[in-house]
C-alpha cells in the first residue's frame, strides 16, 4: 500500500507520527509520575519518621517487648521535638507513660504523664484527654490511691459517655473491676463484672484479649466462692486463648494470678508450676518489674511451704535480678537487648 | 452492528473488564520506567565502562593465586578497568586479559610495568593489578599488547623470611646460654675453691716470715711451716693439674663458641637484607592500612548516600504503586496505630 504513496507521506507515516505519538506519551507519563512524587513528598520528613517509630513502638508494646517499645518512643520524641511537632510529641509522651507503667517505673510514668498533659493542653488535643485520665487512674491504682482512681475512671464507665472509644471504656471497666476485687467488694465486683461482660458481648468477634480477661475475672470469683474446679477451668481457658493469640502480657498476668490463688489454697506444687511459667514468660519479655514480682511470689511460696533452701535460692536470684545486673539478664536472654 | 458492552456506573473501575486508552498508556510507561531503572542499575558499578571505548591488554603471570575475575586494574593509581578473563596459554603461563578504559590509553607506554599486589590481612583480601604510567617519550602500547606482570612478595613470604631470621637468632642465643652455663657451673666453682686454698696457705707462710722467723731458717727448721709449705706445694700442683684438665675440657666449648660467633656473624651479615625485607613488609602493611582507612572514612558518606538513595527509591516505589496496573493489584495500606491501645491497671 505504501509503495504508491509519495516519499514524504511515507516518512510522515513511518517516522514522524510514531515519534510524535511516543513523545506525547512520554510527556503524559512524566506528568503522572511527577504528580505522584509530589503527593508522597512527606514520606521522608522527620514527622513522618517519628510516626513510623511510634508505630514500631506500638507493635513492640503489643508483643510485650516493653524495653524495645520505650526505645522507639524515646527516639520518636527526640525527632518530633526537633521539628516541634507537638501532636506527635504528645502521642510519644502518652505511649512512654503507658510503657513506664508496664515496666513498673511509676516515677517515670508520672513524669511522662505530666509532659503529655502539658503538650495536650498546648496543642488543644482534646481527644487525648480520656487517655491521660486512664493512665492517671492506673497510676493511682498502682500507688494505692483508690479514691482518686475511682474519680478518674467514673466518666468513662458509662456506655453513654461521649467521645469515649470502645477500647478505652473496656480498659476503664477492667480497671474498675480490679479495684473492686482489690477492695474486697464482692457485690461491686460482680456488678462491674456484669457491665464488663455486656461490653465485651457487644464487641464484634476478634477480641480474644477481653474474652480471656473476662474468664480470668470469673475464675477469681469462682475461687472467692470456693469453686476451685470452676476457677481452674476458666483460668486454663484464658491461658489457652492468650497462648493462641501470643498475647504474652496477658499470658504472664493470667498465670501469675492463677498461681497466687493456688498459693492461697495451699496447693504448693500447682502454684509453683504456674508461677514458674509466668516467670519465664516475663523473663522472655525482658519485663524486669514483672519478673521481680513473680520471684517475690515464688519466695513467699517457698517460705510458706517450708522449703527454706529453695526460698534462699529464690531470694538470691531475686537480689541478682533486682540489682539490674546486665550480666544476669544477658545470661538469661542471650543475644537480646533488655530493659529500657 | 457491533454490540456495546453494558456500562454500569455502579461498578468500580478496577473491576471493569476493559481498560481505557489512558490507563493502558500509563501502564505501558510504568513498565518502560521499570525497564529504564533496570538499565540504569546495570549501567552502574562494574559496567561503568560498558558503553565507553576500551582496549584490552594482556598480562603474563607466574601464578593466578589471589587473582580473580573483575579485580580492579589501576593505571598510575587511577581505577582504569578490570580483569576480564584468566586463561592459560600454550606454554602453561597464566594469561589475564585486562579491559581498560581508552581514556587512560595515553598512560600506557612500552616502558609501563605491571605488578600484581595481593594482600590478605585480618580476613580482608585486597588484590589487583597496578600498571605504572609510562614515559611520554616512549611509544604507546597497542591494543592487545602483552605485559609481563611482576608479582610483589606477599605478606606471607615476608613473614616466612622473618621466621627464618628468628630461628637463626634463637640458635645463637641457645649456644650462648650453653657457654654461660658451662662457665658458671660446678667445675669453675671447684677450681676457684682450690685457688682460694692455695692463696690461704701462701698467706700463712707470709705471716710467718713477717713474724721474724727468718725466711729460709724458718722454712728449714720449723717443722710445722715445712709441712704447711709441702702441703701448699702439693695443693698447688693438684690445683694446676685440675686447672689444666678444666682448660682441656673448655677447649671444645671454646671451639663451639668460635662456631657460634661465626654463625652470629653470618646472621648479622644477613640482617640488613632481612631488615630491608621487613621495611618492605611494613610499607606494604602501611599501604593496606591506608587502603582500609580510606575505605572506612568513606563509610559514613556512603551510608548517607545510601540513605538518600533509599528515601528516593521509597518515594519512587510509592509513586509507582499508585499507578495502574500496580494500584489495582496492591491492597490499600492500613493506617498504622501510633498510640498504644488503652491498658487496664494490672496487666
Task: Explain the overall architecture.
The complex is a heterodimer of chains A (340) and B (347). Chain A has helices at residues 7-39, 46-62, 66-82, 86-102, 106-123, 129-142, 146-153, 166-182, 186-202, 208-224, 228-245, 248-264, 268-284, 288-304, 308-322, 326-332. Chain A has 16 helices and no strands. Mean pLDDT of chain A is 84; it is low at 36-41 and 334-340. In chain A, helix 13 (268-284) runs antiparallel to helix 14. In chain B, strands 1-4-3-2-6-5-7 form a 7-stranded mixed barrel. The radius of gyration of chain B is 45 Å and the shape is elongated. With 347 residues, chain B is of the alpha/beta class. The mean pLDDT of chain B is 76. Chain B is built from 6 helices and 7 strands, in the order αβββββββααααα. Helices cover 54% and strands 15% of the residues of chain B. The chains are: A mainly alpha (340), B alpha/beta (347). The interface between A and B is large, with 50 and 28 residues.
Summarize the structure.
Chain A has 340 residues and is mainly alpha-helical. In chain A, 78% of the residues lie in helices and 0% in strands. Chain A has helices spanning 7-39, 46-62, 66-82, 86-102, 106-123, 129-142, 146-153, 166-182, 186-202, 208-224, 228-245, 248-264, 268-284, 288-304, 308-322, 326-332.
